[in-house]
Amino acid sequence: MHPQRWLPDVTGPPRRLVEALRLAGPSTRAQLVERTGLSRATVSGHVAELADRGLVGPAGPAGQLPTGGRPAHLVALTRRAGLVVGIDLGRTHVRVAVADLSHQVLGEHVAALDVADLGAARVLDTVAGQVRAELARAGAGLEDVVGTVLGVPTPVLGGAATAQGTVAQSNILPTWSGSTPALELRDRLGVPVVVDNDANLGALAEVRWGAGAGSRATIYLKMATGVGGAVVLDGSLLRGTSGTAGEIGHVSLDPSGDVCRCGNRGCLELIAGGTALLQSIRSAAPHYGDLRALVAGAVDGDQVCRRLIADAGTNVGIVLGGLVNTLNPDRIVLGGELGGAGDLLVEPLRQGLARAAIPAATEHLTVVPGQLGAHAEVLGALAVAFMEAQRLTG
Fold first, then answer.
1. Can you tell me the distance from the alpha carbon of 16 to that of 39, in angstroms, rounded to the nearest whole number?
2. Per-residue pLDDT, 345
């Protein structure tokens, strides 16, 4: 199968069934009737036809994305319908995952990489190599890929996930400013690629499969080295005019504070971001060398670690108050490495919200840690790939 021509000979009602399975994943025939508007007899007949062609089969019992248990009567697209690739670039890592269109993850690999210190060209050369390697481990090749989504830890201009997206003037990835990573990666791989912000992808994954499931209005925070954010309303990202909606890390808490890398003073990220917490702990407990260790120390009862995480949570809650008053969400999901602190971060954040938000805006609001951990962003990339496969391949 050529990646630019995804199932070109599947048309009419069978195509509607394929599209429904691509978007929703494994489904019962009754669900397919509801999602396509076709009759039960038509659905059953065309499912059998697609099964005869090897494009549809029973849903597998293992290795699925985190959507829960699966009864045996569900049907799903097979690997013959194509594969998608999700890529999560952090400041210090690259994570690649491969999935089929039944929403089954076939392989995932993470490697350390100094993304923030290297130019886009060198990083994307490495990413392209890792994509090829992960496909090979799954027994596949680039000819099987119908869509690839790349997540980057910086705002991307161009609205929705796009192949034309340009990295905004970036203080996180300064050497990437003005680059078009989706186009550059496509040139290296020869497959369709779109790019999006990593917090946006984490938000979509948590809403679809994690702690945001069932929510109509979710604020997602990625609390790691910095503080990123995204807003999902009725399943769709709120992006704003230039793609920066939800980025609360650069809200100023102290107009006379230190200068932030964004050019403002006293930004939330300077107070509650992981880099700031590690700077603060160096004098009191220098043996905590990274965020994972700091969070583990807090969970184990270290009072210095607990104080830093609690103060971060309180300050984030205060900044979130205005956003909660404006959007009136029903859920806040805390992701990133600091999100792993659980209630040690959640409870102070709730206290900060109580100080800054009006009671009516928080009456039906829940604040929860994310459920997908370090996999959230790459799973979000796969989620977008499932949605974008038809558009990408024409």
1. 12
2. 97
